[in-house]
Amino acid sequence: MITLEHVDHVSAANRTVLAPAVSLEHEAVPADQSVAGDPTTAAERLGEIFGVEFGLWERSAGIMTDVEAEELFVVLSGSATVQVHAANGFDAAVLKLEPGTVCRLSEGMRTTWILDEPL
Q1: What is the mean pLDDT of residues 61-90?
Q2: Integer Cα distance of 69 and 2 in angstroms
Q3: With bands split at pLDDT 50, 70 and 90, how would you rate the model's confidence at 116?
Q4: Is a pLDDT exceeding 80 seen at residue 95?
Q5: Engineering a disulfide at 115: which of 32, 80, 96, 108 sits with its beta carbon 3.0 to 4.6 angstroms away?
Q6: 32: Cβ–Cβ under 8 A, 6 or more apart, which residues?
Q7: Do residues 106 and 69 make contact, with C-beta atoms less than 8 angstroms apart?
Q8: Partners of 117 in the beta sheet?
Q9: Looking at residue 97, what is its pLDDT?
């Protein structure tokens, strides 16, 4: 884990971080989740508030499947389509993600992520 004090481009008061300036280390998506392309993902935990972890996350172009954790995120750049599959009590849905989108995924959702550009 890093703290805001260790991230480049942090304000003097350590209360903001310039997210696009933070370099994240990508890892390959596990082979059993990769559908097309060579998708990679990266995450950096920045801290916790009220018992909830927050941080930065990226995913490269490609298609992959996932089983979601409970999460809430804001898309800063890129675009994607997330197909939520009818499974585990969830209805099928298609989510369009673009800059400014706020998205909540629920634990146990089975999804397919389709990214034409990094998100």
Answers
A1: 94
A2: 22
A3: confident
A4: yes
A5: 80
A6: none
A7: no
A8: none
A9: 96
Which helix (H) or strand (E) segment holds residue 113: the answer is strand 110-115
Q: What is the DSSP letter of 5?
A: G
CA distances from 64 to 26, 33, 36, 50, 58 (A): 15, 5, 7, 32, 14
Per-residue HEC secondary structure of 35-99 comes to EECCCEEEEEEEEEECCEEEEEEEECCEEEEEECCCEEEECCCCCEEEEECCECCECCEEEEECC
pLDDT at 16 (0 to 100): 79
Task: Determine contact, residues 92/110, Cβ cutoff 8 Å.
Answer: no
What does the alpha-carbon distance between residue 8 and residue 11 come to, in Å, rounded to a whole number? 9
26, 44 in Cβ contact below 8 A?
A: no
